[in-house]
Write a structure and sequence with these properties.
alpha+beta, 29% strand, seven-stranded mixed beta sheet, 2 domains, 9 helices
Length: 383
C-alpha cells in the first residue's frame, strides 16, 4: 500500500501522527478508540457502535502504537487493544492519497466544467434498467458531472418511473409525483408558461430541498425551448477566484425563499453558496422567482446585491452556459444541489413542448451508487 510509514505518539499519548509517504495525518486517541474496528466496539453485522462513546474518559490516551504490515496495532490506556487497517484510516482522514485535502473547493470525485469542457455521461435507458454496471456508470457520471443524458426512455407519461425505481423512491410534492412541464392556461407557476426561465435551482423553499431532478421529454416541437445548464460549483469557484469578497458574502447571507398558492405555503432559507464543515462548496441555490431577502442593513444589502449580480453574470455567461434541446425519448437527470438549469422562451406555433418532471432525493441516490459500487467490486474480486 505504501512506500514508507511511521507512527508517532504525542507526549501525553492523546494524539497519534501517522506519516505515510511523507504526508502526516493526525488522529485523536479518543477518535481512534470510539472507531476501533473490532467486535467489542462495533457490531460486526450492522457496523453500529456497541460502546457509549460519551462515557469514554476524556483523558484517554494511547500507550503503544506499532505498524504491522497494512495495519496499526494500538493499545489504549483503558486496556483496549485493536489492529486498525491503514486503509480505513486513510479513507477517514481529510487528506487522502489522491491529492485531495480539506482545502479543496469541492469534495473529491467531482469534475467541474464550463461550456467548452462539458462532457456529460450518455446512458441507454434499457441498459440501465437491465444491467447494474450500466446503472452504476450512469450514477457515477451523475455524481462526477452533476448531470447525465438518458436516451430511449419510453414515450409514456410515466416512462421514466421504471428507471427511477431502480435508484430510489419518487419524491412526492404538492404537485404530486411525476408532473407535467408544459404551457397551460392560468399557470400556477412560471414553468407552466412559454417564457424563458433564468438559471435556477428547484424548490429552495422546501426542507429538505429535492436532490435530483428527472426531466423527461415527450415532445419538443415548439420553436425555441432549448434547455440551458450551468455548473454552479464551477461558477462559485470562478467567483472566489475573481471576486473573493463576493464569494464570502454569498456564503454568509441567507435569503429566504417562499412558494405560495391556494393550498400550499412553503418557506425556507439558506445562502446562495453553501459550504460544508470543511469549507468546500456543498450546495448552490438560485431562484429569482422565489427569493425574498430580508431588510438587512443598507451596507450589507449593497454588498449582497453586488455579489449576487456577479454570480448571476457568471451563471448566465456564454463561458459557462451549455445549451441543448432534448429530443423525444431523452431525459436529463440533474443534481439540484449543483446544476443551475433554465430554458429559452418558446412559441407553440411551431408545435407542442411537453416534458415530465420528477424528483429523487439525494440520500437514496448516493446509497444506490455506493452499494452498487461495492457489490460489483466484490463480484470482480470473487471472479
Amino acid at each position: 500500500m505504501t512506500t514508507s510509514a511511521k507512527a508517532t505518539l504525542s507526549a501525553d499519548g492523546q494524539r497519534l501522527t501517522l506519516d505515510i509517504d511523507a504526508r502526516p495525518r493526525e488522529f485523536a486517541a479518543l477518535w481512534l478508540r470510539e472507531r476501533a474496528p473490532d467486535a467489542e466496539t462495533l457490531d460486526p453485522l450492522t457496523g453500529q457502535r456497541l460502546i457509549e462513546a460519551a462515557e469514554l474518559p476524556l483523558d484517554l490516551a494511547l500507550e503503544h502504537a506499532e505498524l504491522s504490515e497494512d495495519a496499526l496495532a494500538l493499545r489504549f490506556s483503558d486496556g483496549h487493544r485493536v489492529h486498525f487497517p491503514l486503509s480505513e484510516l486513510l479513507d477517514a482522514s481529510r487528506q487522502g492519497l489522491d491529492g485531495a485535502d480539506a482545502a479543496d473547493l469541492v469534495a473529491p470525485g467531482r469534475v467541474l466544467w464550463d461550456a467548452q469542457r462539458a462532457k456529460p455521461q450518455h446512458t441507454s435507458f434499457a441498459a440501465a434498467i437491465d444491467d447494474d454496471a450500466a446503472l452504476l456508470e450512469m450514477l457515477e457520471g451523475l455524481h462526477r458531472d452533476g448531470f447525465v443524458v438518458v436516451s430511449g426512455v419510453p414515450a409514456e407519461e410515466d416512462g421514466m418511473q421504471a428507471l427511477m425505481e431502480r435508484v430510489g423512491p419518487l419524491r412526492r410534492t404538492n404537485w404530486g409525483g411525476i408532473a407535467d412541464v408544459k404551457s397551460v392556461a392560468n399557470a400556477y407557476d412560471l414553468t407552466m408558461t412559454q417564457r424563458g426561465l433564468e438559471p435556477h435551482t428547484d424548490n429552495p423553499y422546501r426542507d429538505p430541498i429535492p436532490g435530483y431532478i428527472w426531466l423527461h421529454c415527450l415532445t419538443n416541437a415548439a420553436d425555441g425551448g432549448d434547455s440551458t445548464l450551468a455548473d454552479g460549483y464551477r461558477a462559485a469557484q470562478l467567483l472566489r477566484e475573481r471576486d473573493p469578497a463576493a464569494f464570502d458574502c454569498l456564503t454568509r447571507v441567507s435569503p429566504g425563499f417562499r412558494y405560495r398558492d391556494e393550498t400550499t405555503w412553503l418557506e425556507s432559507e439558506g445562502p446562495l453558496i453553501e459550504l460544508d464543515n470543511q469549507g468546500r462548496i456543498f450546495r448552490v441555490r438560485y431562484s429569482n422567482r422565489t427569493e425574498r431577502v430580508e431588510a438587512l442593513p443598507a451596507e450589507e444589502l449593497a454588498r449582497y446585491y453586488a455579489a449576487r449580480q456577479a454570480f448571476y453574470q457568471l451563471i448566465t455567461s456564454d463561458e459557462l452556459t451549455l445549451n441543448l434541446k432534448l429530443d423525444p425519448g431523452q431525459m436529463l437527470i440533474m443534481d439540484n444541489y449543483r446544476l443551475l438549469h433554465g430554458r429559452r422562451a418558446f412559441e407553440l406555433a411551431g408545435g407542442v413542448r411537453h416534458l415530465r418532471q420528477g424528483y429523487v432525493d439525494r440520500d437514496s441516490t448516493a446509497s444506490r451508487r455506493l452499494v452498487l459500487r461495492q457489490q460489483l467490486a466484490s463480484k470482480e474480486e470473487a471472479a
